[in-house]
Design goal:
The protein is α/β, with parallel strands linked by helices. 43% of the residues lie in helices and 12% in strands. The strands form 3 sheets. Strands 8-9-10-11-12-13-14 form a 7-stranded parallel beta sheet. A 5-stranded mixed beta sheet has the order 2-4-7-6-5, with helices on both faces. Bound molecules: zinc ion (2 copies). The site of one zinc ion has 5 residues, from loops.
């Protein structure tokens, strides 16, 4: 288990204890231990028991719990409460906006033990009459439960890519296996995965199946498996897993067939010809297949059945952006607000990784919960940036802010303070419950504010967890085109917002995008990888990406934007 999994387990224990009406002091000790774990630099799995005991805020009992998590993925107290709680009720604890006490009412008074039963209760209007609920909260709950039900077998790509890469290597290592590759949604780098697919070539499928079933992380659901498929689960992953078993000579055919979306493989290429209809003979490579159809090779992440076939036929596939095209890192937090590392640490690490510049944008004053910067903090930070810039030159830190977009669409400081920044990321963090008109108007007002440089995480969505507020994407993109406001592709694997499906429209309108990690700690920079994957899906090239600009280019860009005010 890594620290974030340990943190989540401790939090879950706290929620379960509250659900069962445990002593609040006991409950709180788990919450604070979870916070301590979340703030650690070192992975707990690399520490000795004595070292864990020496951590401030971790007592003896908690250290034992942590050892349990590291050794067997659980601990006695957690086991005890899990046993007392129906699985569906545990899932209810994940409904945002409804704490354990509310869940206890839904379960004990309402009688709901599964999400489906809870939905039924909402539909019958019975939740509104329960203690602490009303018509309005019943509606909110209904929407949240519907979202959870539709997402209960889905995973964020960034949550499972490591585990699946490990699985692919484990399968490759089996003696029966001749070739193996991920395919399907994983290979297309979809932001949310509801089916993990892998293609495996072997001669003897029976022997292969036996070896697969001997892998500890896998469990087969035999009823859903077939003669050439293995269907089942990977421990700890909610999305089901489907392995396509094939002979080596048909490996490329199976790979192409299962990688592309249904639309992609069925898209007409010529009269009566599709990719699917062409998979009737063996191919040496995927390149050979696409070439045989008179097309350029199409990378997996583009195989969605959108414009890629047209592009490939006319040799117009965009030169998709690469990791090496990223020259700087924008939208990052430091200990000035809710970041884990200091401005200096964030800057030095960024420079060490070879980037030319860092855009720091801590939270603004209204975001009190995130330690938003007051006027005096802004001045203090800008002074430190000045000093660091002298020391670290030619590396440069740009002074920015992630300004809350207030309820009326205005930004979060006086004109004078706003003018003091090199760039401003404008984002919504509160009052997320909006209809499309209200949300769009709020964003439009921020976009037309001359101080806004970048529109941050456009819809506020949290993948698989919370739907974003609805926005009129076209209106927003067109306003950004008019004002030259850059649209962020928030690269956090939890967000990946703006959705990549709108990148093409933004490019068509001449809007620039920016792959921003929204890093709250040094290793948060790594999230740019996930932003890059979806940016490529949307067809983004380096020339349309803000943080692909060199330092002189982006300096000029920020200055010009400021002059236009
Ligand atoms: Zn934000
Ligand atoms: Zn942020």
């Amino acid at each position: 288990m890594n620290n974030s999994e340990i943190k989540n387990s401790l939090k879950l224990a706290a929620q379960l204890m509250e659900l069962h009406g445990e002593n609040p002091f006991k409950t709180r000790s788990y919450v604070s231990a979870a916070d301590v774990v979340g703030g650690l630099d070192a992975e707990l799995s690399t520490l000795s028991t004595d070292e864990i005991l020496a951590i401030d805020g971790i007592g003896k009992g908690m250290a034992t719990n942590i050892s349990g998590l590291l050794e067997r993925g659980s601990f006695d107290n957690l086991d005890k409460y899990m046993e007392m709680t129906p699985a569906g009720v545990v899932e209810m604890l994940g409904i945002s906006g409804f704490g354990p006490k509310k869940v206890a009412v839904l379960w004990q008074e309402g009688g709901a033990e599964t999400l489906e039963q809870l939905m039924e209760l909402c539909l019958q209007g019975k939740v509104a009459s329960l203690k602490g609920f009303a018509e309005k909260s019943q509606e909110t709950l209904k929407a949240a439960v519907a979202f959870l039900i539709s997402n209960q077998y889905k995973e964020k790509y960034g949550n499972i890519d490591q585990a699946i890469a490990n699985l692919v290597s484990a399968i490759e290592g089996l003696k029966e296996v001749q070739s193996c590759s991920e395919s399907g949604q994983m290979r297309r780098r979809m932001e949310v995965i509801d089916l993990v697919e892998i293609v495996v070539a072997a001669e003897d499928f029976d022997a292969l199946r036996t070896s697969l079933n001997a892998l500890q992380v896998l469990s087969e659901e035999e009823k859903k498996s077939g003669p050439t498929t293995w269907y089942g689960r990977h421990v700890g992953i909610k999305a089901p897993l489907k392995l396509h078993l094939t002979s080596l000579d048909k490996f490329v055919q199976r790979l192409v067939e299962t990688t592309g979306s249904v639309r992609h493989i069925n898209m007409p290429i010529a009269d009566q010809v599709t990719i699917k209809s062409s998979l009737i003979r063996p191919f040496e490579s995927e390149e050979e297949l696409y070439q045989s159809l008179g097309m350029k090779y199409i990378v997996p992440e583009l195989r969605e059945g959108l414009k890629e076939i047209e592009w490939a036929k006319n040799d117009q596939i965009p030169a998709l952006i690469e990791m090496s095209d990223l020259k700087g890192i924008l939208h990052n937090h430091s200990t000035y607000s809710d970041g884990k590392h200091t401005l200096r640490q964030m800057a030095e690490h960024c420079r060490q990784l070879g980037y030319e510049y860092l855009g720091i944008s801590d939270h603004s004053q209204t975001a009190v919960y995130a330690g938003g910067l007051q006027d005096a903090d802004v001045a203090r930070q800008q002074e430190e940036i000045k000093q660091l810039n002298e020391e670290l030159a030619p590396f440069k830190i740009f002074s920015g802010i992630e300004s809350d977009i207030l309820a009326d669409g205005s930004l979060d400081y006086s004109e004078e303070i706003l003018s003091s920044f090199d760039f401003i990321v404008a984002s919504v963090h509160s009052g997320l419950n909006m209809d499309v008109k209200k949300a769009t108007d709020r964003l439009l007002k921020a976009i037309y504010n001359p101080h806004t440089t970048i529109l941050g995480h456009m819809t506020g969505r949290l993948l698989v967890q919370r739907e974003g507020y609805p926005v009129d994407h076209k209106a927003i993109i067109e306003a950004c085109a008019e004002t030259r406001v850059v649209i962020e592709i928030n690269a956090s694997p939890y967000r990946l917002d703006m959705d990549w499906r709108w990148i093409d429209y933004a490019l068509e309108k001449g809007v620039k995008l920016s792959i921003n990690p929204d890093a709250h700690r040094m290793d948060g920079y790594q999230d740019m990888y996930y932003g890059l994957q979806v940016a490529r899906k949307g067809g983004l090239t380096a020339k349309d990406n803000l943080n692909s600009m060199s330092l002189p280019e982006i300096t000029a860009f920020f200055e010009q934007k400021k002059k236009k005010k």
